[in-house]
Amino acid sequence: MQYSEGVNVAGSARQIYLGQQLRDLRRSAGLSLDDVAERLERNRTTIGHWERGATRVSAQDLEALLTMYEVSEELAEQLRELRRDSHKRGWWHSYKLPSFVKPFLSFESEAVEVFNFELGTIPGLLQTEEYARATHESGRLELSDEELREWVEARIRRQARLDPGGGLTLHTVIAEEALRRVVGSPDLMVRQIEYLEEMSKKSSVNLRVLPFKHGSHVGIHGPIMVLRSSDPHHGEVAYSDTPLGGHIIDDSRDVAELSRLYSSLEAQALPHTASYRMLRTIARDHVSAKE
Q1: Residue ranges of the HTH cro/C1-type domain (predicted)?
Q2: Partners of 173 in the beta sheet?
Q3: Beta bridge pairs of residue 206
């Protein structure tokens, strides 16, 4: 799978969605980046930045592109609205978070469904505050006490969208190793798993456990996250978190492949009731481990 379309910028979801649309329109028109750059008297890099959502296209340049691509008035107005709204700041901008995290939070804030497989950790949307703190304390970045507090607060704030009326549904498959790995302490893990049990009762959370006994699987190399918007004009996107930072993946072929891999993992995972029983078993094992 190629990640050449990954976006590692601080642009908003709307800015990146607009870039996706402009890229697709250019390709449908049979034009290259060089063709567009020549007609607009811009350089190729500028056009590429617009399409990746790295920079905001001006109103004048957008109109020139819409004319060049012969866009219908209905779609043109949708793209103008995307541009107008692309500069709006979300709640996450009040927190001291790395720039690579902000595009992801922008997409998540607009998503209606998230599909998340986790191999080594509890999904961020289902972490307790103390688990989130423990993972950040042992993470790849050295954080001050204030930065750590803000990271944890932001992670917990994201969970509000899973509450009634929040508008978000989480589908998640958690590998058994993530549940058995002791983060912080066995007591902390017991409380974390009890929280998972509570959250799994929500209609907005579809939680499955992938047990060791099912052997090798397509997610063995790492996590998967796909975000789906309610707007049919906005394609699904995926997010990849690596030791070097996070990347939005917006190439439709790559996102479709990640969606397929998630579906495969969900099919291998235990059904809801059996997953709940496994959570209880693993919680008891953590209790036994501390005795």
Answers
A1: 22-75
A2: 117, 208
A3: 171
Tokens describing residue 109:
């804030």
Range of the domain at 231: 91-126+158-290
The position carrying tokens 């803000």 is 150
Place of tokens 């992670």: 155
Between the alpha carbon of residue 17 and those of residues 96, 144, 171, 248, 251, the distances in Å are: 24, 34, 23, 11, 11
Q: Do residues 108 and 114 make contact, with C-beta atoms less than 8 angstroms apart?
A: yes
Domain contains 226 = yes
According to DSSP, residue 4 is labeled T
Those residues whose C-beta lies under 8 Å from the C-beta of residue 260, and which sit 6 or more positions away, are none
**pLDDT score for 3:** 33
In terms of DSSP bridges, do strands 169-175 and 205-210 run parallel, antiparallel, or are they unpaired? parallel
Number of domains in the chain: 2
**pLDDT band, very low/low/confident/very high, at 139 (cuts 50, 70, 90):** low
